[in-house]
Records
---
Amino acid sequence: MEKSQINHPLLPFTDAPDYNLFEPKLQIIKDMLRICNENIMILDYYKGEYAYVSSKEYLYCGYTENEVLKMGSAFIQKITTEDDLQFIGHVQGLFIEYIHTLPLERRSKVTLFMNHHIKDKRGSLFSVDIRLTPFLLNKEGYIWMMLGTASFSPKAQQMEAYIEISDTLERLNYSFAKKCFMPAKMETLTDKEKLILLLNSRGYTELDTANNLHISVNTVKSHKRNIYKKTHTTNFSEAFVYASMHRML
C-alpha cells in the first residue's frame, strides 16, 4: 500500500530534530492510554509520517493500526469526503500560520478543534471531533510534531473549526464566508449553570434540581436554555461533553 507523506510547506527544517526528546513524551502518552479511551495520533512533519497512532481502532474506519501507519496521509484521504478534505487542509494551514505568529512560549498552549465527517469502508458517514495541538517544536520554534485526538461527535452537525488558547479565554472561530479565523468570545458558565449541569449528569430531574437549589422549575428551564446556547447543543448529554472539553466546568 503506497504511503503518502504528511509534510507541510510552512514548516522549514534546517537540521534534523533530536528524537531523544520524543521517546519520553511518547511514553507519557502510552501510560495515559492505559487509563483512558482516546484515539491518538502524532504527526511527524520532519519525516512526513505518523510517529505514533494508538491501538484504539474504533475510529480507523475498518483499517488497522499498522495500515494507518503505512498509509500516512493517504489514510485521511481514504476516509474523508472531498469537501471535508479541502476544509481540513485549509483550516490546518491557517492554524499552523497562526501558531507561528505567537511568542515561542505560547505556541504549545494552542488547540485547534474541528468537527467534520469521515466514512468507513462501506461508505457510511459519521461525524467526529478532532483536536490538534503542538506536541514538539524544533529548535527554530516551528512545529515538529502535532498531537491529535479523535472521538465520535455527540451530534451530527455541519463542519466547524475554532482555536482556543489554554491560558486565556481567547477564541478564534472559523468563518466559512471569509475563509479565515475571526476573534470570538469564549463562553463561560455561571456557578448556577455549572451546578445544574452537574446535577443533571447525576440523574436529577428538573424538579429534583429545583428543590436541591431552592429555585423554581421555570428558573431551572431558563438556565438550561442558557447552557444550550453557550455550548451550542440541544441536550444535556451534548452540553456536558462540550463543557468538559472546553474547560467550562
Note: Residues 191-245 form a domain with the Arc Repressor Mutant, subunit A fold (CATH 1.10.10.10).
---
Amino acid sequence: MNVRSEFPALAQSVHGKPLVYLDSAATSQKPRAVIDAISHFYERDNANVHRGVHALAERATAQLEDARSTAQHFINAARPDEIVFVRGVTEAVNLVANSFLSERDEIVVTALEHHSNLVPWQRSGVKVRVAGVDERGDLRFDELEKLIGPRTRLVAAAHVSNALGTINPVARIVELAHSRGVPVLLDGAQAAPHLAVDVQRLDCDFYAFSSHKMYGPMGIGVLYGKAALLDAMQPWQSGATSPPQWGWAPLSTGCARRIERRCSPTSRRSCSTDSSCFGRFRACGCSARLASASA
C-alpha cells in the first residue's frame, strides 16, 4: 500500500517539486477515507442530531453516538458519557476553566504548555503557577512538587510538548497531584496521534485532544472527564442545544449530558410527542425544573 497516495493534498507539486509536508504537529493532512466520509455525510445524512425524528436526523444521531463510542474506546474511557465533543483542545480547556474553577483558585501548569493550555487559565482570573524545565527541556519535577499547595485546584500539563517533543512523566504527575487531593488535566493534542492513551490507567481527571492533528476534520475535538466531575461542573455555554421546554432555565452539565445520551433513538421519537421521556429527567438533581413536560 502506498500511504502517500491516500492523502490527496500530497499529490500536488510546489515550486516544481512533489510536496513534502512537515507541519503535522500543527495540523495533519487528511486521507481520502476521511474526505469521502465527510462528503458522504453532507450528501446523504446531513441533519441536526438529537432533535428530529425523521430518517436523516436519526442516521446523523446514530453516527454521532458511534463516534462517541469510538472516542471512548480510543482512549479507554470507562463510559461513553465521559466523552464530550468540543471544537478542539482550546475549547476543552476553556470549558474546564469556566466550569470547574473559581477566581479564588490556583492552578499549576508547566513551562512546556501550548497557549491552548495556558491562556484560558490566565483569562479565567485564577492564579497560575508555572513549573520550569531544565536545559534538556524536561520538567523540573521538584519544582512542580513544591508548587502544589493547599489552594491548588488543578494541575494542567501537556502529555507531549508541541515545541520540544518532550514526553512529560504524566503518570507521576497524576500520582503526585492525587496524593495532594488535586485533579489533573492533560493536554493530549500531540500525544493522541502518536501514543497509546489509556485514561483509566493514567487515572487523569480530564484529557483533551483535537481531531485535526490526527487525520480528522477541523473543528472537532474531545474533552474526556471523569463522570463525577462532569456532573458537578457548572454550565458554561447555553442556548439552542437544550430542549425548548426548559426555556432559559439553567441546566447542569450532568443533566444536559443525561438528556442527550440516555434516550435511545426510539424513545427520542416519543419525546417530541409526549412526556414519557422528559419525565425521567425531572428527578435527575438538576436545578432546572419543567413547568410542563409538554411544549
Note: The CA atoms of residues 239 and 248 lie 8 Å apart.
---
Amino acid sequence: MTNIRPVRSLYPRRLFLITFLMAIIAVPLVLAVRPIAAQQRSSNNCTATPDNGLTEFSSTNADAVQDAIDAAANGAVVKVAGTCVGVQPFVLSNATINPTAYISKPLTLQGGYAFPNWDDDPDGVANPTVLDGDNLGRVIVIHSNDDTEQFEVNVRHLTIQHGNGKADGELPEFIERGGGVYIQQNKTVTIAHSSVISSSAGVGAGISTLGNTAVLASAIANNTAVPSGGGIVTLDAATLTIRDSAIVGNRATRSGGIRNLSSNPMLIENSTFSGNSAGERGSALFSGVSATLINVTVSDNVGY
C-alpha cells in the first residue's frame, strides 16, 4: 500500500472576509430538505444490497453497509434500509481510521428504502435511512490509497449523524477532519436529499473536503467544530457548490457555517444560513477567495 502523503497547511497566509457581490434576499426559503433533528435509534435493523436484492446483507450494527460496499461493482447503486449504527477499523498504510462506511471506488450510496422493497423509488421521508457513527469515528470516508485516483460518488436520501472526526486522533492526512463526511482530493462527490447532522471534528465537523463537492437539497445542521468550520470546510483546491440547501445551527470557534480555505471560489444558490455561531471569522460564511451567492438567505447567525 502506498504511504499517505503529508497534507499542506490548513490555512493560507492571508484570508479575507467574503464580499457579497450578489443580493441577499430577506425572505426565508422553503427548502426540500430532510428533517434536521438527529434520528432516534430505537431499532437498529440495517440491511443493504449492492445488486438490487440479489445479494443482501443484514446486521444489528452498520456492518451490512460496508459489506455491501465491498461487494459492489464499480458504478453500482448500494441501497440501504433501516438504522445502521457503529464503525469498523480500516488500516491505511501507517494509520487506522474507524468509519461507518469507507468508499474507495465509484458508486452511489442510497437510502430511502423499506426492506425488502428495493424496486420502489427511494423516499427518505417515508423510509428514513440512518448512518450513525455513534461518536466513535467518521460516518462516511471517501478515499483511496492513491490520492491522485479520480472517481465519483453519490450519496442520496441518507441521514448522516453522530460522526466524530477527533476519535482517531491526529492521524496523517486526516488531522481531525470531517466528522460526518471526509472527502479526499480528486474525488467528486454529490450529496443530495440528505442530512449531515450532529457531528463533531477539529476541522469541518459536517463535511471536510479536498475534492469536488456538491450539496443539493440537503441540510448541514447542528455540527460542532473546534476550532474550524462547523458545517463545511474546503481545503487545498477543493470546489464546492451548494443549491437548495440549509446550513443551520452549526458552531465553531472560527466560521460556524462554512469555511472556504480552498484556492477555488464557491457557488451557493437558493440556500439558507441560519442559527450558525462562531467566535470569529464568519458565523455563517468565511472565504479566502471570491464566492457567488444567488438567492441566499442569511439570518440569525451569531458571532463575527
Note: Residues 1-35 have pLDDT under 50 and may be disordered.
---
Amino acid sequence: MKKILLTLAVASLFVGLGVSAQTPTLYQNQGDNLGMQINAVRAGVPRMASTSEALKQAREQIRIEKDAFKSKMETLKAEVKTKRDQERTALKNKLNEIKDSAKKAAVQRLDENINKLNSNFVEKWTKNLSDFDTNLSRLIDRASTTSATTTDLTAFTAAVDAARAAIASARTALQAQAQKTYSLAVSTEANLKVDVSAVRESLNWDLKAVKDLVQNAHLSLVKVLTEFNKIK
C-alpha cells in the first residue's frame, strides 16, 4: 500500500509541472468541455460487474491498452522526427532571405527549443499515463482478492470505470499532441518577433489542454484509491 501511495505522489509531482499560469477566456468553459470528452470516452469503456473475475478481466484489458498506447507513441515519435527534419530544411531555406545572421541563428534556436519543449512534455505525460495504468492494475488486483469477503464493490468498480475513461481520454489527447510540430512561419525580417510569438502561444494552448486531461486522469485514480481503502 505504501508503494502505491508513493507512486501516486510521485506521479502527481510530474503532472503538476505547469505550462502557463494564465487561463485565457477560451478555457473558461474548460470544465464543461472536459466532462463532455470524458463522458464520450466512458461510453466506449465496458462497465465491470462487481466480481473477482470481472476485476481480473479489467486488469488484463488495461495491460492491452497500455501496450498498444506505448507502441503507438513510439511510432508517432519516429514519424515526427522525419517531419521535423523536413521543417528544419524548409526554415533554413526561408531564413536565407534574412540578412542578419544573428537573427537567423536566434530563430533557429527558438524553433528547436519550442519543439523540444513539446516533446519533453509529451514524454513526461506518456510516463505519467503509464504509471496510472500500473497503479490502477495493482489496485484492481488487490481488490479482486478482497471481493471474496466483500459483497459490495459497486463504488470501487464505478471509480475504476471512471478512471479508465479519464485515462483513455488523456491518451487520445496526448497522441494528437505527439503528432504536432511547431514550425516557425517566417514572413519578413520585420515580423520575426510576431511570427515567433504566435507559435509559442499556439504551443501553450495545446499543452494546457492536454495537461488538464492528464491531471483529471490522476484525480480519477486518487478516487479509485479512496474507494479501495474503504474495502481493504
Note: Residues 52-231 form one domain.
